[in-house]
Amino acid sequence: MTSPTLSVTTEQQRAAKVAGISALLATAIVVVGNYVLLGPLLVSGKAAETAQNILAHEGTFRLTVVCFLLYSVVSVILVSALYVILKPVNRGLALVGALSRLVFALLWLLGTLQMLGALRLLGHIGYLQVFEADRLQALARVAIAGMFDNYYVGLPFFSLALTIFSYLWLRSNYVPRLLAWFGIISSAWCVVCAFVYLLFPGFAKPVDPYWFDSPMAIFELVLSFWLLFKGLKSSPTDDAGLVRQ
Question: What is the pLDDT of residues 152-167, one digit of tens each?
């Protein structure tokens, strides 16, 4: 037995477009910021070379900071749109999902502060001259590494939010049920992986960390394109031009 499709308002359809655009934009920002801009500057296990790369390409590093800041802003827009769409299904669960995803966005914002802190450590501020250069370089590398810790601390919140939202998508019938089920399974899998990884870091050896969130990322990409180009499925009463009271 399937759940009846809820009626869809104009406000929800508009929010679906906003959600589709903002989710795709957020993904693009993260890919560019993390893999195109920041990745080439980081040298694994070598704080001095990483520091030299950052100072030689300070503009690129600062652009990465801006990208991550923009990600937080776009995430707030996305969370708002998803809440507008899904609150008629279950207001309480929609709020929990929105707040959980907001926590994830705030942790990215914290990451931008850590990156700026790393840049400050590598600068020529007078009061830092009491420290040796190699120590400052190591501290800067630790600050940047902390940004990645933020991600894995935030991952349980992000995946929990997507699990809740996926359940609400299933309940609403706004999107294909198969897509909603894929969202539930992939997001729940990520919740489990995130907590196991935080408890047992060695879990990253048998299960590559990219497998934690990649299925969930694929789901969100497909969902984003669906919302952008297909919108929300309407109930038969809506198609007939009637509004459910």
Answer: 999 999 999 999 999 9
* CA terminus-to-terminus distance, the chain: 23
SS3 233: coil
190-195 own/partner pairs: CB under 8 Å, 24+ apart:
190/155, 190/158, 190/159, 190/162, 190/215, 190/216, 191/156, 191/159, 191/160, 191/163, 194/152, 194/155, 194/156, 194/159, 195/156
State the chain's mean pLDDT as an integer: 91
Listed in sequence order, the residues at least 6 apart from 23 whose beta carbon sits closer than 8 Å to its beta carbon are 78, 220, 221, 223, 224, 227
Query: Domain ranges in the chain?
Result: 10-237
The tokens for 89 are: 């299904």
d(CA 117, CA 174): 44
Residue 95 has, within 13 A of its CA and on its CB side, a CA count of: 3
pLDDT tens digits, one per residue of 123-152: 777 777 777 888 888 999 999 998 889 999
Torsion angles phi and psi, residue 81, rounded to 5: -65, -45
